[in-house]
Inverse folding.
């Protein structure tokens, strides 16, 4: 230990998405908690459309932040995680988004800003798995923490009415789901740990690190974000609206019956090859379209403090 470690107070960095409407004064909240814990002045960074958090998180590390707090939605969380992943500095969460999927999966009370802040500065640390999703055309690697998918679930993300989303939060996702119901199947090959697991027309392939998605629906009830495994759900309803009933039934029965409307798998890598481009989403954000993605689990790569 150097003499400096006894004298220099710890500092938190907050990466905030200024586009989020918040009913609290986040600067005041941060200052109060820093003072209560004997920490130095909080480093403050705002995300922009051009740089939704990666550059800011790198700058926070360069300035010596002892924790980097993602204050925004799951998009901000993904960007901050991308930088902190594999390093020693923990990530804190101040959920200000619509879905707040990671926070919900961690069991955080998303209305308790004081609790979130206190946890980030003085809570307990845990390591979670992260998933790297590499798409070709566009050739792009992105990280996700909750769930990514192609097909029907991603179409819902794309179709969600922004105004409605703002007013009613995650209920908007459910509304979009209903409007999209008939959907279109796409021929898909799903390769898990190098083995072809599925090859047929599907409506959606979802890959999860956590179980809970929008609307409180638990797609992967047994998914754990620190077990070194990805959970995969392939949704292939038979036809029409009645077909979707069998998907719901399959989810409730966790895919163990003879009905193949929904099938579940686990593995460390998942490759999805579609016959044509379809909608693609990461942690609830629509990310354009794609026809090929390789998802690889990076076990215990991110440290959280909460
Ligand atoms: Mg897992």
């Amino acid at each position: 230990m150097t003499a400096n470690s006894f004298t220099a107070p710890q500092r938190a960095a907050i990466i905030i998405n200024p586009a989020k409407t918040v009913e609290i004064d986040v600067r005041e909240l941060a200052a109060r908690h820093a003072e209560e814990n004997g920490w130095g002045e909080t480093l403050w960074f705002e995300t922009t459309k051009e740089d939704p958090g990666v550059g800011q998180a790198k700058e926070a590390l360069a300035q010596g932040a002892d924790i980097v707090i993602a204050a925004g939605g799951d998009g901000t969380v993904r960007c901050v995680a991308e930088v902190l992943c594999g390093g020693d500095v923990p990530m804190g969460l101040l959920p200000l988004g619509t879905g707040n999927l990671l926070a919900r999966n961690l069991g955080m009370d998303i209305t308790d800003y004081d609790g979130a802040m206190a946890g980030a500065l003085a809570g307990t640390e845990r390591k979670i798995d992260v998933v790297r999703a590499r798409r070709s055309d566009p050739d792009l690697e992105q990280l996700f923490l909750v769930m990514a998918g192609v097909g029907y679930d991603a179409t819902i993300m794309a179709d969600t009415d922004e105004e409605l989303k703002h007013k009613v939060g995650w209920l908007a996702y459910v509304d979009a789901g209903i409007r999209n119901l008939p959907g279109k199947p796409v021929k898909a090959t799903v390769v898990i740990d190098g083995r072809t697991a599925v090859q047929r027309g599907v409506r959606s392939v979802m890959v999860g690190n956590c179980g809970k998605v929008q609307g409180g629906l638990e797609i992967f009830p047994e998914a754990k974000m620190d077990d070194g495994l990805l959970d995969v759900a392939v949704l292939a309803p038979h036809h029409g609206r009645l077909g979707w009933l069998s998907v719901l039934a399959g989810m409730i029965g966790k895919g163990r019956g003879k009905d193949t409307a929904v099938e579940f798998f686990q593995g460390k890598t998942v490759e999805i090859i579609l016959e044509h481009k379809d909608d693609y989403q990461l942690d609830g954000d629509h990310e354009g379209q794609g026809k090929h993605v390789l998802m690889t689990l990076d076990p215990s790569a991110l440290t959280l403090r909460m």
In short: The pocket of magnesium ion is lined by residues 129, 209, 223-225, 227, 229 (CB under 6 Å). The longest helix spans residues 240-252. The domain at 131-300 is CATH 2.60.200.40 (Tumour Suppressor Smad4).
